UniProtKB/TrEMBL annotation:
Lineage: Bacteria, Pseudomonadati, Pseudomonadota, Gammaproteobacteria, Alteromonadales
Protein name, as recorded: Homoserine kinase
Residues reported in the UniProt entry to bind ATP: 99-109
InterPro entries in UniProt: GHMP_kinase_C_dom (IPR013750), GHMP_kinase_C_sf (IPR036554), GHMP_kinase_N_dom (IPR006204), GHMP_knse_ATP-bd_CS (IPR006203), Homoserine_kinase (IPR000870), Ribosomal_Su5_D2-typ_SF (IPR020568), Ribsml_uS5_D2-typ_fold_subgr (IPR014721)
The EC number(s) this enzyme carries: 2.7.1.39
Pathway assigned in UniProt: Amino-acid biosynthesis; L-threonine biosynthesis; L-threonine from L-aspartate: step 4/5
Annotated source species: Shewanella holmiensis
Stated family: Belongs to the GHMP kinase family. Homoserine kinase subfamily.
Source domain of life: Bacteria
Keyword Secreted belongs to the record: no
Residues in GHMP kinase N-terminal domain copies: 71-158
GO MF, any single term: homoserine kinase activity
Gene that specifies this protein: thrB
Domain GHMP kinase C-terminal, residue spans: 234-295
Amino acid sequence: MDKSNQAAITVYAPASMGNVGVGFDLLGAALAPIDGSLLGDRVTISNIDTGVEFEQVGAWAHKLPTNLTENIVYQCAVFFLEKLQRTDGVKLVLEKNLPVGSGLGSSASSVVAALYALNEHFKQPFDQQALLLLMGEFEGQISGSIHYDNVAPCYLGGMQLMLNTAKKVCAPIPSFKQWYWVVAYPGISLSTAKMRALLPAQYDKAVAIEFGRYLSAFVHASYQQDADMAIEVLKDVLAEPYRAAAIPGYLDAREALQQQGMLTTGISGSGPTLFSVTDSLEKAQQAKAWLEQHYVTEQGGFAHVCQLDEQGTRLV
């Protein structure tokens, strides 16, 4: 197929919260700052005669491997050309806008944007489920194990519940449109693998039952649109008790946000980004200002007032 006149396309993949507190490895949500700014990575693809050309730019490109062949986006392109047995080539430019090791689905954003762009460029050889499985596989190479709680919402948008059944990876659940999710990244990086290592190998039966009750109640409340119940059970009994002290300033911030009237606060993914929920825009703005002053400690840190990104990954 002649692609000599095919125009370059750019794909945007939003940041995401894994776990969403209550749903360890089983719940994820995509984020959209309400000021319209894009919080996520972008990948631009164009055709070349042969092989793979790759370039990394953007605010956080300096944190990526300097050997470009080690970048997962480059590896996605090599895989695609081999899988489709193409003799022509592609050039990919990754605009790295999400900090690495932030708890905002940084690796998922890069992988999802790259594979979505490649799939569009080559006229969608993979259907949605097949592409989602591929995204999980590639993202797992970075994070150390395959979990879809960042990849699925990043790709599909909204709040996603992981099903991991034979026919379906995930399904969307209703979200609370009146909620504001304030997210704050302090500017430090935490390794997902190291944060996972803080968790116990086994849990007490009572904790397992509590986890099941909170997650099922949260899903039920989402379908009933019972915001009070959803907030009451939006608790993390599996990860936060073991990770909170390892995130500088988190416990103090959680306490301060509660005093300001925020409804609940939790760790986004494995941290250090935190999220805090409110149904008041005024309180959300106050929380953002407090976090910028007290929780954001390093250059490159930020806070955003967000709602859920219902669109997911898209052409821009």
